[in-house]
Amino acid sequence: MLVGCGADNNQSNGKEAKDGSVSIVTTFYPMYIDAINITKGVEGVTVTNMTKPQTGCLHDYQLTTADMKILEKGDILIANGAGMESFLEKVIKEQKHLKVIDSSRGIQLLKENGEENPHVWLSITDNIQQIKNITDQLKDADPKHAEAYQANADAYIKKLEALKKEMHDALDKVPNKEIVTFHEAFPYFAKEFGLKIIAVVEREPGTEPSPAELQGVIEQVKPLTTKVLFTEPQYSPDAAKTIARETGAKIYVLDPVVTGEANEGAIDAYLVTMRKNMETLKEALK
Q1: Closest CA to 218 of 180, 273, 270
Q2: Distances (CA, A) of 254 to 78, 97, 235
Q3: Tens digits of per-residue pLDDT, 256-276?
Q4: Rounded mean pLDDT of the chain?
Q5: Fewer Cβ atoms within 10 Å of its own Cβ: the N or the C terminal residue of the chain?
Q6: Which residue spans within 56-161 are E strands per DSSP?
Q7: How far apart are CA 220 and CA 67, in angstroms?
């Protein structure tokens, strides 16, 4: 969780007072999707995604000079929180004009080996709470547009609630519940839909598992009635291919909604990608 928003966060950087515009910066793609839905059509409010929309999860991400320039021009920073953005303390310290919004505030975090898992947006229930958190904190930071933010958030939450029901209707009764995922992105998703993650291919995304770790996953997959592995489009599937060769498992793709285009089409990116994940799981677990 974030510890605060800096000593001077109640002070404007001057731009808001001069022309009434508000510059919102998001840390990475899931936050960008949330922000453009909440701010849709609100005059004078711009949203910029700080990292490139192909960056993916911000595990061990290091701020660049370009990132710092974007932050310097921003009024509000929307972060996932829950430990996803390890650089936040530096931002809070160095960019005291920024109002920092913690979207995971109050969400019960899952732990793995004593560490909190930050991938909360992959639970639709938790993503709805993130929308509520962002909206409440945006209204406090920019009361002029509070009514518009709330109306947009309410409309988007209705879409998310419909998606949640659609996915539960599709996945609650799948005959097989055991899955092997690529990295630790999907525990919240699994909890939401009653799935059991029995193994993870790469604990650290982008880091090949050791031979012993690979063999451990193979031994866990072999006895499964339905042998399926789920890779992610952001990372190489090589390790999963090795497991598939040894076990006869089929490989499917689950997308953690962390990459995409930062344009108008992104407004429905979460809905579209989660529906694709639903269809993938229906096929894989039938």
Answers
A1: 180
A2: 25, 38, 11
A3: 999 998 888 899 999 999 999
A4: 91
A5: C
A6: 76-79, 99-102, 111-112, 115-116
A7: 42
105, two tokens: 């505030």
Position 176 pLDDT exceeds 90: yes
Instruction: For 23-34, give one letter per residue: b (16+ CB within 10 A) or e.
Output: bbbbbbbbbbbb
Average of per-residue pLDDT across 110-116? 90
Q: Residue 94 belongs to what H/E stretch?
A: helix 88-94
Instruction: Tell me the pLDDT tens digit for each residue of 54-85.
Output: 888 898 899 999 999 999 999 999 999 999 99
Q: What is the DSSP string of 217-253?
A: HHHHHTT-SS-EEEE-TTS--HHHHHHHHHH--EEEE
| 169 CB neighbour count, 10 Å cutoff | 10
- Alpha carbons within 13 angstroms on the beta-carbon side of residue 216 total 11
Please, are residues 167 and 278 in contact by the beta-carbon 8 Å criterion?
yes
The one-letter amino acid at 173: K
Q: Phi and psi for 127 in degrees, rounded to 5? A: -65, -35
Residue 10 contacts residue 76 (beta carbons within 8 Å): no
Are the beta carbons of 92 and 49 closer than 8 angstroms? no
How many whole angstroms separate alpha carbon 12 and alpha carbon 159?
34
How far from chain centre, in Å, is Cα 114? 21
Sign of the torsion angle spanned by Cα atoms 258, 261, 266, 268:
negative
d(CA 30, CA 85): 13
